[in-house]
Predict the 3D structure of the following.
Amino acid sequence: MTIEPVGLTERAIAEVKNIMDNKGIPEGYGLRIGVKGGAGCSGMGFMLGFDKPKEGDITYAVQGVTIHVEKRQTMYLVGLEVDFYDESDARGFTFINPNSASS
């Protein structure tokens, strides 16, 4: 059974593929999704980057995008969905966290 803790929207998948195709991301790298500790009441934040798989990762693919997540972080990431926002006021990846108290 493959665990897929984080999902990507169609817009996020398209943008990740665009970045990988146009920014020279090396062969064998995938999208790393993780958590970074927050300070005070802001809680925890999420991060994205491109990386090779590491020991202790869960690695899976969503529509041709390879995703790496550290196993020890999965409890913070289960149910998270990554989207891509591209409008006149802002552009970037967003995180939809159904486990957040403010959701």
Summary: The chain has a mean pLDDT of 88. The beta strands are 6-8, 30-36, 45-51, 57-62, 65-70, 80-87, 90-96. The first strand starts at residue 6 and ends at 8.
